[in-house]
Write the structure tokens for this entry.
Amino acid sequence: MTETNRPKIRAQHVEVHYGDARALHGIDLDIHAHEVTSLIGPSGCGKSTFLRCINRMNDVIDGCRVNGAMFIDNEDIYGDHMDVVELRARVGMVFQKPNPFPKSIYDNVAYGPRIHGLAQNKDALDNMVETSLKRAGLWQEVRDRLHESGSSLSGGQQQRLCIARAIAVNPDVVLMDEPCSALDPIATAVIEELIEEIRSEYTIVIVTHSMQQAARVSQKTAYFHLGNIVEVGDTDQIFTKPGNKQTEAYITGRIG
Amino acid sequence: MKSGHIVASFDDDLSELNQMLAQLGGLAETQFANAIDALERRDNRNIDAIVQGDKQLDELEYELNERALEIIALRSPVAADLRRVVVTLKVASILERIGDYAKNMAKRSRVIIEHENSKSENVSVARMAALVQQMLNQVLDAYASNDSDLAMDVWDRDTEVDRMHTSLFREMLARMSENPEQVSASSHLLFIAKNIERIGDHTTGIAEQIFFLANGQFPDDERPKADKSSVSGLDQI
Amino acid sequence: MTDTSTSMSVSAALKSPESAARLKARYRAERRFRFYGRAAIGIAAGILIFLLSSIVYNSIPAFTQNFVDLDIELAQDKIDPNFSYDTAIIASADWQGLIKASLRRDFPEVNARADKRELYDLVSSGAGDWVRDFVLDNPQSIGGVVRIAVPTSDDIDLLIKGLIDRTLPESDRLVSNKELVWLDHYTAQDRVNAQFAWTLFTAGDSREPEMAGLSGAFIGSLLTILVTLAISFPIGVMAAIYLEELAPKNRITSIIEVNINNLAAVPSIVFGLLGLAVFISFFQLPRSAPLVGGLVLSLMTLPTIIIATRASLASIPPSIREAALGIGASRLQVIFHHVLPLAMPGILTGTIIGLAQAAGETAPLLMIGMMAFIVDTPTDITSKATVLPAQIYMWANNPERAFLPKTSAAIVVLLVFLLSVNATAIYFRKKFEKRW
């Protein structure tokens, strides 16, 4: 019981500064395992910034400082002992624009296991690639052309390839930064279905501008505004009777 | 009220829906008032008009349904907007039921007018009808002004209607057993009383929808019930 | 355009006569601009075509050389008196003497010393090499008389090619009347023939135009460029990667950046002075050597390579970096697995253009002694050498009339060299280019 109730990810007063500008004003948020948590809010509200704190992608930005603590499994990922490379293997990420490497489909998926030395031999690697592609629902479509370029796929297939690539290293957490914003409704539906299918195995955090998508795919929703969390709660609650006027104004499409 | 939607035509759609519902409410109110009027004045000239009026009411409700479905399909309303549309649909269907009861009352009034011997019971029915009319009027006002307190006031007053109905029921039973020749007219009157009581119940239904619209949930406590007619027999008189 | 007080609709406004005129004026302006553009391109292309065709036209005579067939008596005692059959002994025989003897036999009436010298001037002073090469290839011919084609002297060659007008009075022309008579004698016997001038490509430099070739300068250029490539490519690419990908953005790196950009604009002669002071005076490296030339040109090429590399690294979309970082690649892995392969076409293009620029450079090499008369073809990067552009300059300064077409020919060779370098650049860019 306590095991399931303990949050997978716990943000404690996370503040992010870009130079002199403060992007996040102290975020406290618990994210639970095997759930999809969606982060919504107007552009520039800090939801993507927060997402990028979870795998420390903000580290590569010059002049970006992160204060506060972010725990994954009770371990502070901003602690001194934390290795960023290892962290990012545990926390996979899928980006807004499908960004397969300009390599073959096989090499795209095999890249993560290769650099982390996860496969002992060629067979094991083949296996990992197959499993990941199957999990991402792409295997049937690409099994006969694994050695074609990843960029030869359609947008939706490319995004599923990116998901396969992210889960190939067997992460605990998968972060998705507006994964469907460049896709058509059918491809979007396929990805959403995929998210629903894999959520039992991962902790998924998704940033989305589409409130319908947040409502469809997530169990928890957090509404960000101007670098603060305004409201967080069960998705059905947020979308039927939000507790906060600001949240309500945002999700019903009124000027906040 | 809070500021409008960024997509202004969404606001227009919602206010159009509200207007349709107000029209529907007004129509149901009129139908009910006309039915009561016809009964009290023993005037059967208006009865056909009432029956015709119900058709108009049904058509309006159908139109409102169409409009609401359109809004749901095209605007994907959420939260307060979604509640507004769903509540409108439900209230519309309740008003349609109220219209049906009014039509039924009018039809029964015709029989009473034709077969009646004495007019003595009408005072109780008139009192109950006046109360329910007032409740209906108030609940529609509450809806128009988003006033959930006013709606809850209506909700509480239904007990009074129930009590009146119970006593009317017992009175009618006693009278029918005393004057068997009036059974035909009296039983129709009994049904009219029941219809009025049902309309009272429906106004509480509307009141609950208003409360839900404002608060996102239904009233906590069980509505107090005082209608004992369903368990009343001649022995309890 | 439309008066705000008169609420004229757009479509109505467009139908008014003023509007039609305005529209016409707009199209006219567009046509005018097109014409200017075409004219500019036409003028540029015209100048280029004129320049190229005049160079090519002037160079044509240099690609052929006239030979005269002489009957050479290969007397045993003059070549290998002791029957040693040693090639060294045979090679050192007085071949020019044999040619002179042959000429004397053909014209026994020439007796005066001055006339004899004029007669000998009929053929190139290096003609003996042809006889020697023939004998070394055919040693069994010693003792007999063979007819061998030897190059005519540069003036005779020009005369045959029509570049010296034989109708001019004798005092105004480089070939005397007597020489004309002797030459006509050979021509009448059909013993004068033009051949392709292989000398131009196989021989080193020479004071005699008919003996001078570009081999030394070409190899010198190649060695210099190789040294430049070997030094500037790794250093430039590494510096660019560090500056673009890894260096913290602070005052020091921005100062370095500004200086690199400025370095690209420094006159090349300054690099030559620097090379002279540092490599030759301080490090005591050999003068005139491709090693030093390459080092100096590296200094010049480095900024170009660094700027080109940085630009092509910066043009790699951040999404690729994010993708790699996102699955836990280290910064170095991101660079070497993803960014660098994608940036390669741009880097190679920049490098090869930088090298082509270096290959055409003369000024810095002037300072380190590579603008020198060097006969031997260089064998390694420390032997004395010159480069193609320097060779062109030196030939252009030579007084002999025959160096004029030679200079043009050398320019053509340099242009072909640079064009093929650029073609390589395009090939590599196409080969490495990938879609993402």
Observations:
- Chain B is about 80% helix and 0% strand.
- Residues 8-236 of chain B form a domain with the Methane Monooxygenase Hydroxylase; Chain G, domain 1 fold (CATH 1.20.58.220).
